[in-house]
Amino acid sequence: MIIAQISAGICLAIGGAALIAGSVLSFYVWQLMLRNRRKKIVSEAETEAEVIKKEKILQAKERFLQLKAEHEKVINERNNRIAQAENRIKQKELTLSQRLEETQRRKNEVDAIRDNLTQQMELLDKKSEEVAKLHRQQVEQLEALSGLSAEEAKNQLIDSLKEEARTDAMSYVNEILDDAKMTATKEAKRIVLMAIQRVAAETAIENAITVFHIDSDEIKGRIIGREGRNIRALEAATGVEIIVDDTPEAIVLSGFDPVRREIARLALHQLVTDGRIHPARIEEIVEKTRKQVEEEIVEIGKRTTIDLGIHGLHPELIRLVGKMKYRSSYGQNLLQHSREVANLASIMAAELGLNPKLAKRAGLLHDIGKVPDDEPELPHAVLGMKLAEKYKEKPEVINAIGSHHDETEMTTLIAPIVQVCDAISGARPGARREVIESYIKRLNELESVALSYPGVTKTYAIQAGRELRVIVGADKVSDKDTENLSFEIARKIQNEMTYPGQIKITVIRETRAVNYAK
After folding, report:
1. Is 402 exposed, middle or buried (0-12, 13-18, 19+ CB in 10 A)?
2. N or C: which end of the chain has fewer CB within 10 A?
3. How far from 269 is each of 263, 278, 282, 508, CA to CA, in Å?
4. Of the candidates 369, 407, 362, which has an alpha carbon nearest to the alpha carbon of residue 498?
5. In this structure, are residues 456 and 471 in contact, taking their beta carbons and an 8 Å threshold?
6. Residues of the chain with pLDDT under 70
């Protein structure tokens, strides 16, 4: 038992020693493995470090080579620029040296020319002295031969030269005027003709009466009424004189206000159509007709402004434009005349590079002073200008209205265009019917202007005042003086008279030899 226990203890001791020896052996083995592993890791790290080192060295060399190449490129470019600059400087130096040589050569030439001129001037001075001496000798000889002093001969020569220069100057002036008429007015004629061709307006005859046609003479009695009550009521309501005479199937409405005549005509037409004619009915129809005519006037004004493309007019100006339809001047309808002037002014302004809309506006309103509701004692141009100012029109339009008959001074370029277009519209053949008294008066003034000049024996105004023929005495006026006389008469007529279009002045000089056979 004890032996067994001792054996077991020995076995345990031996097993523990073996275990301890195995553990120590394992520890040494593990340390050896760790040492080998460490050496291997260090070796791998050194190898990897060597590789990274070589890569970095290669990258550094590549970067160095790249920087070196860029640096060399920059240096080469800078060297090229320096070389180009040196070439330009050398070229400039060469050019400057050539210019200096050329300048020096020209300076030498100028010096040579100056010396030559100096010699020639000295020679000319000597010759001038000789010529002056010879001139004095010749003058003395001429004075001795002619018996006149040099001053007297000079005065005579000056007088003859003055007369000759005056004649030549007049001929030259006439040539210049003819040339100016053919060249300077060519474009103006083209513009005016183009404007006239593009505008067409109707013409009318100014009347102070309106004829109202009726179906039978029985209606005349109904219009007159018992003891003339109907006709008196109609005249009082319309302000128009109604003439009922023996003229068959016609009644005459007489009055200087065309609007009133139109109201009377329309009211009479409604009364005759309705058949009920008595004072109360007359007043009712006349008042109703008056409102209709006023509405029609406004509608005509609006339609006119729309047709012409004019916007922003004051309503009162639109009404006055419509009222122009019932007004005429020298047989020319005022509304048609104003539309024609507006279109002409627009076309002419466009041709001249001005504002065509502004010119058209001024052309339409230029005669607005002829149709006011009241009639103050003012020229229609001034009255129209005041109306335009009242209704806030533009200053250019106001000036064109007020100055188209020269009542005020023209301050804009639109004003003369409106004045010219107004004259063109009025001077067009068939546009106006001139009063016979003013027509005869103008012809007499034309002849009187020409008769006021010395040497004029007879004058004849022909072609409706478009030409003036002047007969002069052959013993008092020479052929050369006729041109001067024609020019002076034309200028005086232009400055002193007012007339449409142009007037041709023809001066006639003839020599007659008369003998009698007995």
Report:
1. buried
2. C
3. 10, 14, 11, 61
4. 407
5. yes
6. 1-2, 4-5, 7-9, 11-13, 15-19, 21-22, 143, 146-150, 153, 177, 180-209, 217, 246-247, 255, 329-331, 375-376, 427-439, 464, 500-501
CA 223/CA 212 separation, integer angstroms: 12
Q: Which residue has the tokens 């007020």?
A: 402
For 74, 224, 255, the CA distances from 238, given in Å and listed in that order, are 106, 15, 10
* CA atoms of 35 and 69, how far apart (whole Å): 50
Question: Distance between CA 445 and CA 461 in Å, rounded?
Answer: 10
Q: How many residues does the chain have?
A: 518
Most distant pair of Cα atoms in the chain: their distance: 224
Name the nearest CA neighbour of 412 among 394, 424, 390, 425: 394
* CA quadruple 62, 68, 72, 75: dihedral sign: positive
**Which stretches of 330-413 are DSSP H helices?**
334-351, 356-365, 380-390, 395-403
